[in-house]
Recover the amino acids of this structure.
């Protein structure tokens, strides 16, 4: 079998998703034996910029060059995989959309910021077609391995469509919502190998909103438990505010 | 004029570029900058509730997410006047040790060693040095195991919250971790031997070094800022002697002390505080003739290898001596005020400075990451190192500069990634 050519690229982000992939540690060499890693500038000096079979992209678009980069990678790849919350949903930096952009930019860089050529932070799917999403902040390495193994045995991986809440129940965790905690498990995509609720910490929505989530009902539930509505709405924007907004608008238009 | 411009430096964390101009054997221009897109963390954090800030700011960086987490929590706690329990501090130190081990192992073996052994990457190196690569990956795994055992996740650990922890690992997990640490000790000693034996360029430049001097022992958390020029000041006074400025060739701010550059990271720490290392490390320094202070920036890797042994010993000691028990979820009462939190990340000091209103909403935020602090020092090192290597072939010059850049273990996500060269 011909080994698939794989590239791992990054645009604006923390590089945590890429590190998470390399953190498969003991099986890293076995994985690399099954693929031909032709580009990965974070760990390789020689990086090929031609046609590849699979291209993983981490990070979100935050300045104009990012758009040119991902368009080129799209042209050169059969399969584009958005790796992690920034690439999938915009990530924490997209919270800027819900603030006064001028104020935010001025606060950090003052008057001298023309050289930054900033554009509003957006997920890569706003600019190019994406074939698969590996969610989470950072991307879940177990999901990455699962995805790669599926491809290597000739299957077409399917996006997971169940919530964190569903998985949490299967693990028989004591429900944090029932304990009065501010958990976002019911509206967040699952397939998370290490769930915050396993560690007595509420889910904070890093894997992004389920497309059929009932946002308004969840907000109502949390308000009833005594949480501040404005802060609830702000927290739902933490990783994927743009997507949440779009989905909530769709709900409004339907009703 | 010869112009060297490296647009994307590889094998570092983040995206960076370098432009160098040379005229008549003299360096006329040296601009090292980040080309990482700006994310405006300090601006985004304003208006957010104190309980969300640690989660947001830990995302500044993948490789030092623990350091940002700990500095952030401490800043909030200092603002609210919260005294955390001794166990909370020890649990946080364990997570930070995990990050120190994985970060140093990743940097030493996967980013630095291939340059010295003549391979383009750690992966390519595995063809000849498979045992070493496997050993490195095992050390990375050990560090990750420590972080995830205590912090939940390897990256962006979440169990540590303002005032304490949501979770403490059960005894059987701690015993398993202790056995892993003991088993990894020989690999740490081999790393020490390997990196003490590397032949580094004969280059020295005396500069200033800055680090955090821990309150007690050689802890990773909380203490005063000290420098080789005699500064010794509490963290909240940092603005009096370090200043940030913006340069148009970089998306990353630059930081200086009294308008002069300084260095940070493992070499700075050991130059300033090698007396705080444990006895085994001191013996190893004698055995391999390692002397601090060293003004050779390439000795950063030697310092990291020593720290690897020190922190592995410290983790073993802690797991042998301490019983961790869940103390309950912390209760937090926000109050108006300012708090600064400072910790040592693997590559230097990290500082978070927040101001809150009486409801615990953040009104002001300033964050200083390690890479921003040593960028100017690195630029100045390149300027001084370059004339001594101009006689080499172009490829070789680039490799030597890249080696120097990588020695600093820069992380451009923190500050804001890498080197591509065109010659004019």
């Amino acid at each position: 079998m011909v080994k698939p050519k794989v590239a791992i690229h990054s645009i604006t982000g923390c590089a945590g998703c890429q590190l998470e992939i390399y953190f498969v540690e003991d099986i890293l060499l076995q994985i690399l034996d099954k693929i031909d890693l032709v580009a990965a500038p974070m760990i390789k000096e020689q990086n090929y910029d031609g046609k590849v079979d699979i291209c993983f992209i981490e990070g979100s678009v935050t300045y104009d060059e990012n758009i040119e980069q991902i368009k080129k990678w799209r042209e050169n790849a059969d399969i584009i995989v958005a790796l992690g919350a920034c690439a999938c949903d915009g990530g924490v930096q997209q919270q800027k959309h819900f603030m006064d952009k001028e104020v935010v930019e001025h606060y950090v860089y003052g008057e001298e910021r023309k050289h930054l050529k900033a554009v509003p932070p957006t997920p890569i799917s706003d600019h190019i077609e994406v074939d698969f999403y590996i969610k989470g902040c950072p991307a879940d390495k177990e999901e990455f391995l699962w995805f790669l193994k599926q491809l290597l045995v000739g299957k077409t991986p399917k996006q997971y469509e169940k919530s964190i809440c569903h998985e949490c129940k299967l693990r028989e965790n004591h429900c944090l919502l029932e304990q009065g905690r501010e958990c976002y498990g019911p509206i967040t995509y699952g397939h998370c190998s290490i769930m915050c609720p396993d560690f007595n910490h509420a889910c904070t929505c890093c894997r992004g909103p389920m497309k059929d989530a009932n946002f308004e009902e969840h907000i109502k539930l949390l308000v009833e438990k005594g949480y501040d509505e404005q802060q609830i709405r702000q927290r739902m924007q933490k990783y994927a505010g743009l997507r949440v907004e779009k989905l909530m608008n769709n709900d409004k238009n339907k009703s | 004029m010869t112009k060297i411009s490296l647009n994307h430096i590889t094998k570092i964390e983040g995206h960076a570029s370098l432009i160098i101009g040379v005229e008549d054997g003299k360096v006329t221009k040296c601009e090292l900058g980040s080309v990482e897109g700006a994310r405006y963390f300090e601006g985004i954090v304003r208006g957010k509730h104190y309980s969300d800030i640690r989660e947001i700011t830990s995302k500044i960086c993948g490789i030092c997410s623990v350091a940002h987490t700990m500095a952030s929590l401490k800043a909030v706690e200092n603002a609210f006047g919260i005294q955390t329990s001794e166990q909370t501090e020890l649990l946080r130190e364990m997570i930070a040790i995990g990050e120190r081990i994985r970060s140093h192992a990743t940097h030493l073996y996967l980013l630095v060693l291939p340059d010295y052994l003549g391979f383009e990457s750690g992966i390519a190196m595995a063809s000849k040095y498979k045992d070493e690569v496997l050993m490195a990956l095992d050390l990375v795994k050990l560090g990750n195991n420590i972080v995830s055992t205590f912090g939940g996740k390897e990256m962006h650990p979440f169990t540590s919250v303002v005032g304490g922890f949501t979770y403490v690992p059960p005894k059987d997990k701690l015993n398993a971790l202790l056995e892993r640490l003991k088993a990894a000790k020989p690999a740490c000693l081999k790393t020490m031997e390997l990196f003490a034996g590397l032949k580094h360029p004969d280059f020295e430049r005396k500069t200033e070094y800055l680090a955090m001097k821990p309150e007690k022992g050689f802890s990773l958390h909380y203490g005063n800022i000290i420098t080789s020029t005699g500064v010794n000041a509490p963290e909240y006074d940092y603005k009096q002697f370090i200043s940030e400025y913006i340069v148009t060739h970089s998306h990353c701010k630059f930081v200086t002390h009294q308008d002069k550059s300084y260095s940070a990271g493992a070499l700075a720490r050991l130059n300033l505080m090698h007396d705080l290392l444990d006895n085994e490390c001191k013996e190893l320094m004698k055995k391999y003739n390692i002397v601090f202070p060293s003004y050779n920036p390439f000795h950063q890797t030697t310092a990291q290898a020593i720290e690897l042994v020190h922190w592995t010993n410290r983790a073993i000691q802690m797991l042998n001596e301490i019983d961790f028990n869940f103390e309950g979820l912390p209760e937090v009462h926000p109050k108006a005020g300012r708090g600064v939190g400072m910790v040592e990340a693997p590559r230097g000091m990290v500082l978070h400075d927040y101001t809150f209103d009486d409801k615990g909403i953040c009104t002001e935020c300033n964050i200083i990451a390690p890479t921003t602090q040593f960028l100017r020092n690195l630029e100045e090192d390149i300027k001084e190192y370059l004339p001594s290597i101009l006689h080499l072939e172009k490829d070789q010059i680039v490799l030597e500069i890249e080696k120097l850049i990588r020695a600093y273990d820069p992380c451009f996500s923190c500050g804001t990634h890498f080197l591509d060269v065109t010659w004019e």
About this structure: The longest helix of chain A spans residues 241-254. Chain A has two domains: 5-152, 164-254.
